[in-house]
């Protein structure tokens, strides 16, 4: 009976994992380590006893664990938090990731591993572990300190960049090499997909979830939320992206619903159960013999992770304007790798581009660095004091001056307001352009698949294509108008700022021209993107010209209606993102 | 990729189930129906679209759902609650189950189905659905009323009897027929197994669970509890009993730990997820064509369930001493079948003794009766009023008199105390005897498997057997002494009650003899059971005699120590069963 074998395997996993984790909990060590040890114990490398009879099923469930882990991470993630942490986290995280990928790649090449293995090693080393850090900070009672907030910000940015990184790795693995153009295209497509899903998702999902939460008991809500989560993951894999990306994104989208606290409460146990299986499954991949064989690389990589992360993260935080002590604490806290490294390692195995030894090496490094994390955090203060004494006075003086200067810098008064306005306008233009392009791509897709049933209207493909194109144009008109308006505002603002008054009478004319150029450039870029990405429904040139002219006329006539439609859509999204008690810029 | 197919299936199940259940929740219909409809929709009978690609995995997960469903039911179940409800529930539940099995069996035979099919049909009809009733009562706001309490008691007893019933059905399915002797032996073995697991479980599990709960976070606790649950289920299946029995029992055992509320909170979402899959998997078995084909039996069975249950449960409650209105409400509320019927139907399919059509018929009947439940509960009051008017005055008068008489009856004062004492003493004797027999069986098992390593001491099998036997006797001495003492007390009490004073001087002597006979009978029964069930380690007669004599001598010497050991064990169990704020008889 298959069912009994399955229950037996599950019982073994849960019992052994329960034992090891209770032990680790008692020894005040990270629970994750306990799961991994349990995996080693029940894994296929502990001859001659066979504990797990059907590894396939356990592995399938572990995939579910990864999805739920990232979904829960997404639930905790919030677009607002990201905004609050601001630039400092971005600078630090970016510096860390780029430097760690480079260090990892160099180490891999040094040991004579393939370029792909080295690249994946670098990627694995680049992302720190949110789970482990949260647990360590909680255990040490430091969760509310300033440096902890900054670390949390860095972790959020890292999680986001990790998603981009995974998409990039998938692309690179597919083409076999790193090409700037392809990479850029991949990032562009990913950005487009993320933007569209975020906008559509934010419009739909939180409303649906809140409705369900209002009318339903917990069990129905759980089933519906899991359905949405898995469903979106499927959609994402259909598009060729990793299931992890989907899980994280839909988590972040659901996080904007009002009932997120209730959802977190009911999703957590399910996540706990499956993430336990996930980590046990990781442990099952570890062959103790392999670890001995690779003891030397593991040591080197571990040292590289600890030193590299301490230096790069401290450096990043310091450059972003924190004092030396805080920066050092941040660096010491982030010096480990965790769940995302396993996800990236899984990705490499799934894509069949990395060697088998990479996974256990990553897990071993993660285990050691995880083990070290609490000690590193605790020793950061003594180290800061020691450095303060040991370094020459002049050096510390320069450091202190820099921090002070950065602290006094921060855009204030009118400058800050203008920067904020510019940033917001740029974002509006980009998002609306992306949405327009998405509408055309969807129209092209629907046309190719015959979903539009235009053949009922006409047999002539030219007419049909023109119709499809017009349809897409009609749907995207509100977004086009919005992009045009925001680009216009942006142009005027930039003209005002960049053209000084000293041109005298001509100042106005120059400003007016510049104020017009930017929206026109935006329209041109949009047009090119649409032409390139939705070429299947592009009508012949003369037809297109006529359609565009008709569209312009229509826009002129309907300007106020279109502005209203867009304002209403925007308000709907804003409502979703805005929760009571938090003010939110327009 | 197997993983993606699995996620796809899961996404389909969750999405469709989410949709249907939200709809049913909105229409204020039982959610369970929504799950089943979802199962029909995604099931293999909705040609030509294939929704589920790997039914096997979904079915495996659904088995997990059944385990978790019964485990959670066990968690809510409590030995104390059972005691509080008392005899009324037992009478009503027993009447209902026996009558419904008979009705079901007769219906099956009437339609010309096989004896086994008919028997399973009867069993399926006999157990009402706790989940559905709870939900209906909650929706109607009647949960706190007196009749609801009584219904809850009946449901608890039913759940217990269902477990026994399933063990019986398994036994009957194995032997192919119903033989009184075998059935009795099966019940005996089951009782022994349950008694031993309960005693050992209550001694160990709640302590372990409370320890884990004290030192651990929720995720570790969840994993450990699930490990214990699945592990015990495995043990139970190894013994040849159903996994459902194991899940329910370990749930009831864990329920005696102090941290049960926390455990319920973290287990509930996991149960919700998998029980959704369980009910969807049930729906997947339904072939709409088959339902049409069996429309006639379904109608008959449905009518039988509603009428049969209303009559038998009302009758049972009334006989147990409730007034007509309460009895009728209880009967109307219990008139449906639910999750246990599916479990029993699964059992039949797993044992390969029932036909394929039985399951969908049961599900259809359950769906219809579930749908009717809220309406039946609501219409019980009007019906009671109608009956009150329609029945001749003399009949209602007799009914009222009976209720009054039963109400005034209930053992009060000294009689009640004595009855309580007798009941407790009988239980003590039975439990201790069971434990002694269990120790000998375990010793025999260990001897056969060579776990005792007695071959290191002697080559002579007689010596080895004698040693094993002595070992078992030594371990069970505290229980033997306890059984003897309690049987003695029971004998004295019974003698006091049964031999009236009119025998004059001989009264004392007769009483003394009778007070001796009962413990001797108890010892004899115990000896016979041990000899029969642990015959492999029974030493030759003369050796046994010597050993028994040595044992008696030893017992005489160590009497006080043994009494103390037993008292301490008993106190440990009592502590487990006793929670603050509730007083508990010694």
Note down, in words, how this protein is organized.
The structure is a homodimer of 586-residue chains. Chain A has helices spanning 2-26, 31-42, 55-76, 79-110, 115-126, 130-140, 146-175, 180-215, 218-238, 243-254, 260-284, 288-293, 295-319, 324-333, 339-351, 358-390, 393-409, 413-449, 461-498, 506-533, 541-577. Chain A is mainly α and 586 residues long. Chain A has two domains: 61-379, Na+/H+ antiporter like fold (Up-down Bundle); 413-577, no CATH class. At the A-B interface, helix 1, helix 3, helix 9 and helix 11 of A face helix 1, helix 3, helix 9 and helix 11 of B.
Summarize the structure.
The structure is a homodimer of 586-residue chains. Chain A is mainly α and 586 residues long.
How large, in whole angstroms, is the Cα Rg of chain A?
27 Å
Low-confidence stretches of chain A: 580-586
Number of domains of chain A: 2
- Helix-strand string of chain A: HHHHHHHHHHHHHHHHHHHHH
Distance between the termini of chain A: 61 Å
Give the CATH level 1 class of the largest domain in chain A. Mainly Alpha
**Roughly what fraction of the amino acids of chain A lie in strands?**
under 5%
Instruction: Please count the helical segments of chain A.
Output: 21
Instruction: Please describe the biggest sheet of chain A, giving its number of strands, its sense, and whether it closes into a barrel.
Output: none
Range of helix content of chain A: over 70%
The interface involving the most residues is between: A-B, 59 and 59 residues
What is the count of β-strands of chain A?
Answer: 0
Q: Residue-averaged pLDDT of chain A, rounded?
A: 79
CATH topology title of the largest domain in chain A: Na+/H+ antiporter like fold
Helix and strand composition category of chain A:
mainly alpha
| Multimerization status | homodimer
